[in-house]
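I have been asked to look over a protein record a colleague put together. What it holds is a sequence and that sequence's fold in token form. Please read both lines and tell me whether the tokens look consistent with the sequence. I do not need a full report, just your reasoning and any doubts. This is what I was given:
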Amino acid sequence: MSRALAHTGGAGGEGHDLVVHLRDVAALARRFAETAKPGDSDFAALAEWGGWLHDLGKYRDEFQDYLLGRREGGYETQHAVFGAAWSWEELPRAVALAISGHHAGLPSYSKCNERVANDDLKPHPTAERLIEQLKRDTNDVTETLPDPVAEVFRKTGRLAVPVRHEDEFLTRMLFSCLVDADYLDTERFKTGKERTRTDFDAGSLFARVDAHVRGLGAAEEESALGRIRREIYESCVREAVRELGFFCLTAPTGGGKTLASLAFALRHAAEHASTHKLDRIIVVLPFLTIIEQNAAVYRKVLGDGVIIEHHSGTAPGATDESESETPEQVVAKQATENWDAPIVVTTTVQFLESLFDRKPSRCRKLHNIARSVVVFDEVQALPHHLLEPILSVLRDLKTNYGTSFLFCSATQPRFRKSPQLPSGFGSEECRELAPRPEIVFRELQRTRYELAFLKGKWDWETLLERIEREPQVLVVVNLRRQAAQLFQRLKNRGVQGLFHLSSTMCPEHRSDVLGKKDRPAKGSIHHALSQGNPCRVISTQVVEAGVDIDFPVLFRSLGPLDSIIQAGGRCNREGKLPLDTSGAPSGRVVVFELDGERNTPPGFYAFATEQTRELLNKVGSDPDRLAVDPSLYPAYHEILIAWKPTDVKSIQDSRAKLDFETVAEKFRIIDQTGGTVVIPYRGRRESRLHPAAKGEAERLIAAIALKKYATIDQRRRLQRFSVSLYPQEIQALCGSRSIVPLVPGEESVWKLDHPASYDDYLGVTFGELPVDSFAQ
């Protein structure tokens, strides 16, 4: 009698023996669990059991016939419910939940209960029979199965509905170990290749960063900025020997946080490599522009092969095992899903939603977050309406899974414990790394703040005249519509050196407009600045997200305090402007308000703007406190936290009930998600020089159209040519037949099919993006 198969379509054309698959997944899942929670034999046993039982239902004739093409797939061919049913009765319920969801996603406790009690399939008595078959088949594969009723389970009893949130996360972590083991073993069978990973040698990586930073320090030895950066760096390195926990780094823009935080993380991992087995650095950033910038810095210092980037541009959608997938498709879909790399650079959306999602493709990475150092850059951008569940899970990761966290910001919130934030930090719990933050801010002051809005609002004519007076000025407004109108009015007046930056432009377009700082092309912002030519840039907040430009004057429309300070970091950024006659910095940040206009989006952004107005009214007589007083920011954030519910009840209650489906629905950082539109952008210079030639985006689009599939590399490269839009904007472009799906049947990524919908200066020219949202 032929042996049962787990899969067909292996690299050599053979089938995948079911018992071999169960054995290998069980061993791998156990190894992942032992790494995530060293010394916890109970947790390792749960993971191993999940591996042995997850595909138990594939023994059934109905599934074997489906696998071999002798019948269609359907209700009778499902397989996960049988291992789940046996686990529900014989093991802690966490195992059943993980098995039940290893393809479709974690179910709610109640739904899993319904599935395993199904009268039609009779899953438990069927599973008893399949267990006997498994025992017979394992005689020539492995010596023994795990003891069906292990002593640990007799001691602890079955896991009923947990009342603690950490029990919910334990189920997620178990699910992660099982799913990743299952997918990796399936990938190995289909591709014939073992996944390899660059070893994480934190000590040697830290040595590279240290040598690089000290080389920079030697070049900056005489400058005050270089001295302050060195002090911040040295303090981070010293503090890295502390025990695992929560840390914060409060330093102004230009203080060298990017490399100082990386050095801390690597030294911290090296110091605790033997005791806590820290095995990974994860850098979490709110915007794609910062990811590109930081990843480039890391690669320059550390070289290739140790860093992966994971964001929407590298994610081809949820992994769903299919017998028709090619080996290339399997590798493409799984390349970044489990974060098995020494250093991961990802977005806040990817990191946080993975902690609360139920999809296997999102959750499989969780066990690799354990035993890591997580660096949150621009931590003030964490969504206030979800802070309580976020901090609750971060605390669980720290306490139970050996993870350290570093929160970096120029406008550091403290997330203090309160009735509104029960999982917040105690007074000394989050340890500051920066030496003397108040002195550092004062010594790094490079700008003066002018609160023009306190003297009255400006009309359009006043704003236009003020911009015309400044040969080089950056103007930042809150709305895309306003930025486009301001650019057009200045253009109509014949203003020279005029540029526009907005999220309506694809990143490659913005890069063309900015130019490279070290080798700027003619016609770019950096070229105009370096030559002392007129340079007047009209921008939305996109310029605040890590864009390295330096202006003598900045006009910022009144908005949230964090945004004003971030924008201020683009003024006299390098501290090269001479001091004024009083010995003060001569960089000018002018905060204005436009009359007769809706100047902000509604909701939280508008509330944060009004709170900023009140705060600035109080500091009006001493506006330079914005540049030199970091104590302003925690109090400001506490007001915002108190105003908007942090989800103390809703998501947390659903977590306590093991209602994974409801949690995934409720935990949404971005309320409205429309879609991504790929722009066939060739670059203004290339279009002029080679009008008939195809650009990179056009070549990629053509290759995808030919295969009707986009690889992970193609999606990553297309991110440079993509714009994210609201649902109503996608709908409007579909209605005008301006866009079509990039991949047939996938209506989340589109390609622009009508050149008139994209302007050479403004990009996509209609609608509003949520300015206080995260990049995916």
Q: What stands out?
A: The chain is about 45% helix and 10% strand. The mean pLDDT is 86. The first strand starts at residue 5 and ends at 7.
